[in-house]
Amino acid sequence: MAFRKLVSQLPNFVANGSIPRGTRVRSFASEGAASPVYVVFGAGGAVGSDLVGRLAKQQGAKIVASDVDQGDLESLGSSAEIMPANTEDEAAVKSILDKAAEKFGKVDGVACCVGSSLIKPAHLTHAQEFHDAIAKNTYSAFNILKASVGPMMKSGGGSIVFNGSAIAHKGYANHDVMAAAKGAIAGMTLSAASTYSPHNIRVNMVVPGLTEAKMTKRLAESEEARDASERMIALGRLGGAHDVARALEFLLHPDSSYITGTFLHVDGGLGNIAPAEAGDSKQA
Ligand SMILES: NC(=O)c1ccc[n+]([C@@H]2O[C@H](COP(=O)([O-])OP(=O)(O)OC[C@H]3O[C@@H](n4cnc5c(N)ncnc54)[C@H](O)[C@@H]3O)[C@@H](O)[C@H]2O)c1
């Protein structure tokens, strides 16, 4: 319904309490305000495991934690139901969502914290490396979207949050493959946010920059590489997994029920702004 038409009918709603046909009503309660059920993929990683810890502190929260690497999930202890899966496998992802919905009666929030890294120019990249990056990042995100919306449509809504990357929002040399993989997820996020809005399903993306994690371990260990990276970041430091997990939790939470189709950058400025030169602020 057009906004102007809706506004023109507002006095009628107030007068007789009726809602015209076709008006979509959103209720806070329908998004799992009480005892929320969350599924976290990539839960053995730096960001995913921090997110599980945060969600576990929410009142009555039930969490399913999944990763391809079962060993990484063991550190989560009893804070979550552990269900290992390879997110490149469509049937495996669907099975996790179905089991979560069957066990807890619904699924309110799903986070995709699965990812990989590849720093190479296109002309040196093998077809298999490109295929692997797309499978691990983009196909995983698609499988998660596809499997999540079924249970959410049944229970009246939910929130899906993907992890993108700053390198898909600003051009950085030698990130051709990862920019393609994460850029595709950004486009999918916008389309899916529209597709599933009539079902009260919100779809958003957190956009990390350089973050301390398994995939950046080598970079963080080399003082030279770390210094060079920090000089590219306006806030002058790598992000922590907790910085990214906090943003994911925010977007998953039912209190964010009016936010959909959004990219929340958690990158110290890497994707959008140039670092100031020393002395710039003196002139301001
Ligand atoms: N760390 C960074 O600098 C950085 C930068 C930009 C974007 N990101 C994104 O942030 C998200 C979180 O990554 P992180 O920083 O915690 O890295 P991480 O390497 O610590 O975690 C990634 C996790 O994904 C899991 N995984 C990989 N392939 C999988 C598969 N096929 N099926 C299931 N699980 C699989 C890994 O086992 C690992 O636990 C990812 O989407 C990543 O692409 C991270």
TrEMBL record:
Keywords: Oxidoreductase. It holds the Pfam family adh_short_C2. The keyword Oxidoreductase applies. It comes from the Eukaryota. Transmembrane segments: none annotated. One of its GO terms (molecular function) is oxidoreductase activity. The keyword Oxidoreductase applies. Belongs to the short-chain dehydrogenases/reductases (SDR) family. This is Uncharacterized protein.
